[in-house]
Amino acid sequence: MLYSTPEQRRFPPLAGYTVRADCEGGALSSDFGALVLRGIDRQIGLTARLAAAVQDKRHPCYIDHPLRDLLAQRISQIASGYADGNDANSLRHAPMFKLSVERSPLEPEQHLASAPTFSRLEHSVDRKDLYRLTQALVDHFIASSPEPPAAMVLDLEHSDDPTHGQQAFTFYNHYYRSYCYLPLFICAGTSHALVTAYLRPGTRPTGAENAMIVVRLLSYLRRHWPQTHILGRGDSHVATPEVIDVMANRRLTDCVFGLAGNAVVLRHAAPVLQEARRLHQQRTATAPAYGPRLPVSRRRYEECSYAAASWSRPWRVVLKADVMAAGANPRVVVTSLAAPPPQMLYEDLYCARGHCANDIKAVKGDLPSDRTSATTFLANSMRLLLACAA
Questions:
Q1: CA atoms 334, 335, 340, 346: torsion sign
Q2: How many CB atoms lie within 10 A of CB 263?
Q3: What is this structure's pTM?
Q4: How far is CA 213 from the centre of its chain?
Q5: Distance CA 101, CA 379 (A)
Q6: I need a surface site. Which of 112, 223, 299, 342 has the fewest CB within 10 A?
Q7: What's the rounded mean pLDDT across residues 296-307?
């Protein structure tokens, strides 16, 4: 500034202290969290694991930013709230982010990577790199457990990723009423940790596609946890004959999936639904005698053995008949578990998958994983995995 003064301003002493004002400011930063993330990363080794999964195709003579530094910078920026790759153009001078990748914070020649460098990184990965990156996330999940767990739950959930341009493999999905990707998130149902994620086109997934992913994931987990009982959980998107056979016919593996209602299943549910409707009407009629509050709903459970035409064998099906003032709300769950009672199976095991939706909201909201605006599908897959790593 034209009339700025670099001298310190002196003020009257206060409580025995001298008070001075310095207008230069120095190297200031409000992103101290980047250093905390660096300390955590040094303990868990996440960026080193991710860097080892990507084949660096650059010529060694022209590398200013090692691959691990690029991943650490990008992940720390996403975790600090800077999800846009263009933010790197200003953050490359930030002292805290320099310290987070172990660079001198005040030397100009130690500046970090800019947005074009990250764009080239995202567009340089191939399918093999992405496969190893998803595997590295699973390795990180496995390493987070000090010992093999006795049991674990895998929540499989598809979530929409709206697109607003000409991205590759974006399609119109009638359920979400938009053009989108439909990535698959796999979370641990007990610890709420993200296991891995896959970016996929916006069409509804086929049973063979989901089964291929589940087979590879189960095989990889079994190498490290051979005696862990694994329960697969998901909604009707996942409840295909291929996935049910994979989850239910393997050793120490079971499943509980939501099932879309059909005429045969609803015919089995008709008696218990009629009983729930009768009890709800009876309680509604007698409720005024005990207070002004009417009953919210009346719920009944039933189970049966059911086999769709495409299933290899009959499976246990739990029917929930829920009658409210607004009408009936039947729900159907298919499972390979034989021991839990119907109510426990539905309320304690199946309904707990709602926590997976909250975990995905955290990834999409706090770590915007939906910044998939690159022109190529592989670059957008890289962006999704970086957000998941953050």
A1: negative
A2: 6
A3: 0.85
A4: 16
A5: 23
A6: 223
A7: 82
Q: Of 76, 68, 70, 119, whose CA–CA distance to 97 is shortest? A: 76
In 3D space, the residue among 318, 387, 321, 347 whose CA is nearest the CA of residue 85 turns out to be: 387
Rounded to whole angstroms, the Cα distance separating 378 from 130 reads: 8
Written as one letter, the residue type at 294 is L
Distances (CA, A) of 4 to 239, 257, 281: 69, 68, 80
Helical spans, DSSP H, in the chain? 33-44, 46-53, 67-79, 88-91, 95-100, 115-124, 127-143, 207-224, 241-248, 263-286, 342-344, 354-365, 377-389
Coil vs helix vs strand at 172: strand
Q: What is the DSSP string of 44-68?
A: H-HHHHHHHHS---S-GGG-SS-HH
Cα(333)–Cα(34) distance, integer angstroms: 44
Tokens for 79?
């975790």
CA dihedral 192, 193, 199, 203 (to 10 degrees): -20
Report the mean per-residue pLDDT for the chain.
86
Write out the two tokens for 257. Answer: 């999936």
Q: What is the CA radius of gyration of the chain?
A: 27
The closest alpha carbon to 235, from 314, 182, 305, 274, belongs to: 182
Q: What is the mean pLDDT of residues 263-289?
A: 76
The residues, any chain, with a CB within 8 Å of residue 91's CB and separated by 6 or more, are 31, 77, 82, 97, 112
Degrees, nearest 5: CA angle 344-350-352: 100
Which residue is listed with tokens 């979370």? 187
For 72, list phi and psi in degrees, rounded to 5.
-65, -40
376 or 96, which is more confident? 376
SS3 content of the chain, % helix, strand, coil (to 5): 45, 20, 35
Closest listed residue to residue 298, CA positions, set 319, 317, 283, 285? 283
| pLDDT mean over 88-102 | 86
Spatial CA neighbour of 300 closest among 266, 281, 323, 333: 323
Q: CB–CB of 200/163 below 8 Å?
A: no
